[in-house]
Amino acid sequence: MIQKGVLLVVSGFSGAGKGTVVKKIMSDYDNYSLSISMTTRSPREGEVDGREYFFVTKEKFEEAIDNDELLEHACYVSNYYGTPRKYVEQQLESGKDVILEIETNGALQIKKKFPEAILIFVTPPSAEVLHGRLAGRGTETAEVIAERMKKANEEALLMQKYDYILVNDELNKCVENLNTIISVAHQNPKNNEAFIETIKKELEVYK
Ligand code: ADP
Ligand code: 5GP
């Protein structure tokens, strides 16, 4: 029997280490599939269409919304971002655990549609460490770093709505903790409906 996969949503402050954690869990374990989002923003240097994102025009994005091709979508810094439905549904059906790395609005839309989804908020151990990571990454100007630190205040207001707060201090430990959370989620009755139906039927013989 194939058990349906777990839908895992990862959000967190910019610079918290979401990308790093997701990349490592994808390479350390083989039961995860990473959803590739659609966006209207332009590719950054080194980004490839269909690998980091599906880069589309605003018209194409709006067509996808109209055709109900997205599981959720949100506007972030003047651009649209959304999760293509088909891939996620196929992977979950085939038993893969699917990771969505998305911002907080989209995460809360997913929780409404899929109450069994697991929402994880990745945070560094302190604001000072967050600032240090953003600066250390070297991809943003001091002005953009200040904006992101300010935005983190808004994002922190939504932390309570998540199922788990994942502190990304020591990377290996953080990835191990994330994998443990998912392992436990597999034991949830909501993720075992097919099994429950099967064993109920088997038990009927003994009624
Ligand atoms: P996000 O995707 O959340 O914006 P990144 O994955 O780009 O964050 O990480 C931000 C910076 O912090 C990167 O330079 C990354 O190498 C570093 N980093 C991530 N996780 C850790 C960690 N556990 N310890 C130290 N540095 C980390
Ligand atoms: P970036 O432009 O830096 O790649 O991403 C900006 C923000 O958009 C990040 O917080 C990222 O997690 C989020 N994001 C990426 N894809 C999606 C998506 O499909 N839906 C939503 N709601 N947010 C997304």
Explained architecture:
The longest helix has 15 residues, at 142-156. The chain is α/β, with parallel strands linked by helices and 207 residues long. Helix 1 (18-28) packs across helix 7 (171-185). The strands form 2 sheets. A 5-stranded parallel β-sheet has the order 2-7-1-8-9. The two termini are 24 Å apart. Strand 5 (70-76) and strand 6 form a beta hairpin. It contains 8 helices and 9 strands. Guanosine-5'-monophosphate binds at residues 37, 41, 72, 74, 76, 81-83, 101-103, 105-106. The site of guanosine-5'-monophosphate has 13 residues, from strand 5, strand 6 and helix 4.
Gyration radius, rounded: 19 Å
Bound molecules: adenosine-5'-diphosphate, guanosine-5'-monophosphate
Terminus-to-terminus distance: 24 Å
What assembly state would you assign to the polypeptide chains in this entry?
A: single chain
How does the major sheet shape up? 5 strands, parallel
Number of strands: 9
Low-pLDDT stretches: none
State the helicity in percent bands: 40-55%
Shape: globular
Number of helices: 8
What portion of the residues fall into strands of 2 or more residues?
15-25%
Question: Could you state the order of secondary-structure elements as H and E?
Answer: EHEEEHEEHEHEHHEHH
Q: What structural class should be given to the helix and strand makeup?
A: alpha/beta
- Average the pLDDT over all residues and give the rounded result: 95
For the biggest β-sheet, the strand order reads 2-7-1-8-9
